[in-house]
Amino acid sequence: MTAFAGASLTATYTTAQLNGSESYACPQIGQRYDSLDKTYRFVQYNSGAGAIAAVAGNMVGFYAPGGVSTGVTNVVTSDVSDTIGVGAGMLMAVIANGDYGWIQTKGVATITPALVSGADGNALTLSSTTDGTLKVCAAVTDAECAVAIDASAKIIFLKCAD
Description:
Elements: H1 15-19, E1 32-35, E2 38-45, E3 59-63, E4 75-77, E5 83-91, E6 100-110, E7 123-126, E8 134-136, E9 144-150, E10 155-159
Parallel strand pairs: 2-4
Antiparallel strand pairs: 1-2, 2-6, 3-4, 3-5, 5-6, 6-10, 7-8, 7-9, 9-10
């Protein structure tokens, strides 16, 4: 696990920045940042077939075109039709399609959209019907990625796959 000082969690980066003359100052894809009781991961955003724009505070899943996983874990999307229902984390900034930024994967967070379903203490999974949000785990096959701390205030505890 990599830890470094000065991570700008709301900054976004283009491919040119990551591969060009500014690459020395950019995080690397898949890099993790630990900040006390929270963990973040540097990923690429893909808007998916539905062209779903990134929204800070929205949830993302691992990108799986048409719901078929390619095993890629450093590309994420809010387009639930292009995931396999596994929550990757919460967006820290608005990231343009194809660009790079941070997601929070562990720790207390406040998501932007309301939960599709769930109450305080419920295990949560990526919603299969509403882009960028969570719902209560209702089946043993649901991949738990968070727990509702205060569902009405949208406060959750993230525990996404690393």
